[in-house]
Amino acid sequence: MKPQVFGALAACAALTATLAAHQTPAPQTPAAKPPRPVVPLAATTLAADPSRYVGSPVSITAPVDGAIGDSAFSMKGVLVLAPILTAPVKPGAYVTVIGDVVRFDPAAIATRMKESMPVLPPDAAAKYQGRPAIIATSVINEAMTDLAKKPPPPMSPDELNLNKAMKEIGPGFTALRQALGGATPSMTDAATEATTLVNGFTQASAFWKVTPRPDAAKWTEDALHAAQQIAAAAGKKDEETLKTAVPALQATCASCHGKYRERLDDGSYRFNAAAK
User: Fold this and answer.
1) What is the rounded average pLDDT for all residues in the chain?
2) What is the rounded distance in angstroms from the CA atom of residue 224 to the CA atom of residue 125?
3) Closest CA relative to residue 242, chosen from 187, 175, 184
4) Are the C-beta atoms of 50 and 104 separated by less than 8 Å?
5) Are 260 and 216 in contact (CB under 8 A)?
6) How does 202-241 read in b/e, with b if 16+ C-beta sit within 10 Å?
7) The dihedral of CA 127, 133, 137, 143: what is its sign?
8) Does residue 196 contact residue 224 with C-beta atoms inside 8 Å?
9) In a domain, 30, yes or no
């Protein structure tokens, strides 16, 4: 190789190495921290060694000592601060509290809880100053009701009609799949359940006429057409049509649910009015 060519190549390599050394590395996106595990704990253990658990989420089941203010109470000497209590806690009744352990400091807790900070009597605030407290996310009573969850607003008449239709459609679709999923599909049962779906989607379509959401109206129309197709195919024992129509119906329902169905704190579902 000619010396001048070799020199040019060496210079090029040196320049590349210099640029690489000075190149600013791409910023790394910090990995999301995994949620901290909830520590099952006895209230007496927390009261005895609070510093060990401050900042940690815990779960404590214990009897209630008594109510303190509007949405606060104590259990085994530990102060519990809930954003809301939809029913009073009774002294002596067992509850399960899930939440974060803090040292009680009214100013700091007020900053964290904002308007949901319970109002405590002055003597109680002084009594618990610096002592362990739990900012509760759940307060579950003996009836397994979470008293710290705000109940949803009542449904409108139109929402009630949609909810009624959905309660027919859900079990109807499950029964349809069961009728067709056995070793010997029952076309008679499939036709019956498909008719239930037709009635349900007909009712649901009325909701979208008074609650305009063009995409939801189209999905409901498609679902109604698929249910009618399934009913006809089951009546004719047309298994090939059913193999495509049933999954198509499921996919259509999933599209609408993904956007317009909202899961509430109590585990129930309803129309998500905020979705557009």
Assistant:
1) 87
2) 60
3) 187
4) no
5) yes
6) ebbbebbeebebeebbebbebbbbbbbbbbebbeeeeeee
7) negative
8) no
9) no
**Judgement on whether residues 128 and 77 belong to the same structural domain of the protein:** yes
Whether residue 44 is found in the same domain as residue 109: yes
In the chain, DSSP assigns E strands to 39-41, 57-63, 66-67, 72-75, 78-81, 94-103, 132-140, 261-263, 269-271
Q: What are phi and psi of 95, to 5 degrees?
A: -135, 155
Question: In the listed set 106, 140, 174, which residue is the last one of a domain according to the structure?
Answer: 140
Q: Which residue has the tokens 């119906």?
A: 249
Tokens at 269, concatenated: 């579902």
| Per-residue pLDDT tens digits for 204-230 | 999 999 999 999 999 999 999 999 999
State which amino acid sits at residue 274: A
Q: Which residues contact 69 (CB under 8 A, 6 or more apart)?
A: 118, 119, 120, 121, 124
Q: Note whether residue 82 is domain-resident.
A: yes
Q: How many domains is the chain built from? A: 2
Give the H or E element holding residue 176: helix 157-181
- d(CA 147, CA 83) in angstroms, rounded, equals 10
Average pLDDT for 26-45: 73
Quote the pTM value: 0.61
Which residues are 271's β-sheet partners? 261
Can you list the positions of beta strands (E) in 38-120?
39-41, 57-63, 66-67, 72-75, 78-81, 94-103
Domain that holds residue 70: 39-140
CA separation for the pair 245, 247 (Å, rounded): 6
Dig out the tokens for 219 from the structure.
């999905």
Q: Spell 177-188 as b/e; 16+ CB within 10 A means b.
A: eebbeeeebebe
